[in-house]
Amino acid sequence: MSISYREEIKDLKPYKPGKPIEDVKREYGLDRVIKLASNENPLGCSEKAVEAIKKSLDNLSLYPDGNTTILKEALAKKLGIGVDEVLPSSGADEMIDLISRTFVSKDDEVIMADITFPRYIATTKIMGGTPVIVPLKDWTYDLDGMLEKITDKTKVIWLCNPNNPTGTIVTKDEVLAFLDKVPENVVVVYDEAYREFVTRDDYPKNSIEFVKKYPNVIVMRTFSKIYGLAGIRVGYTIANSEIIENINKVRGPFNVNSLGQVAAVAALEDEDFLKKAYDVNLEGKNYIYEEFDKMGLKYPASETNHIFVDVKKDANEVFVEMQKRGVIIRPMGGTFIRVSIGTMEENKIFIETLKEVLNI
Predict the structure, then answer these.
(1) What's this model's pTM, rounded to 2 decimal places?
(2) Domains in the chain, start-ordered, CATH in brackets?
(3) In terms of CB atoms within 10 Å, which end of the chain has fewer, N or C?
């Protein structure tokens, strides 16, 4: 073909999401398949969110509120910030791209970990930026290593806390010490998609104080994880009003759909659902830990709703064999897989299936 494509996307590979349940059922002729691959909430979402969606189904012919007015007001009230300091998006994925489009120009350097959310590196390359990769240390972000990589070309630093896929965290004191040393002209994007699952007291429970203290910090959150609204794509970003205003310049119109907006507003108020999801996750995590320990499998302690574990066999082979038996997990390269924490029934099925695949 004579069609040419942008040089920046030449080496990129399309993102591969977790395999859908129906695809696995058809492929292997299975009646029952459980998906523990995409860090979804096994409890679904708040009934209040479902009711809000049902009430809005008559309005599908209308464009959504392009300003997400009610959702922004609800978030601002809940978080104690200004309406001009928060910006909803179509999941955190869209916001990652919007941030790169706002700040990253050709040959700018963007610092990130080697094992973290893959969209950071993809969106950097799309914009013609140069990824600067800092290896994890003990499966955790090496903040000192990131500081050493800062140059006059550094534009953005991506910090995922807790980290996906390893589930590890950096503490509040470590983050503050890091931010104190980052030049004011370098944007630090603090992605805390899994913040609500954290159990440790030394984790930064109130990241909004970072935004108030450091004008170069952007905080990203999502409704996809503990809120269980992954299917309708809603996230939000907290930053100073100048940053929000400039991100708005590259944001497409009507980017957050109507159902997502009303569901997110309703979900914000359902504290009982969040508590239940937290408890189910913690119970499931402790159970899987115990079983991994019995099996002699090594894993970093996770503060998320997923666990990164060394299964001591080729991860892709394990992935395929688990699928054949009706359990979808995520291969992470080498001998590592990532498994989402499900209901207790799903967790037990996962463990028994893994034992069978690993011959333990």
Answers:
(1) 0.95
(2) 7-45+272-358 (3.90.1150.10), 47-268 (3.40.640.10)
(3) N
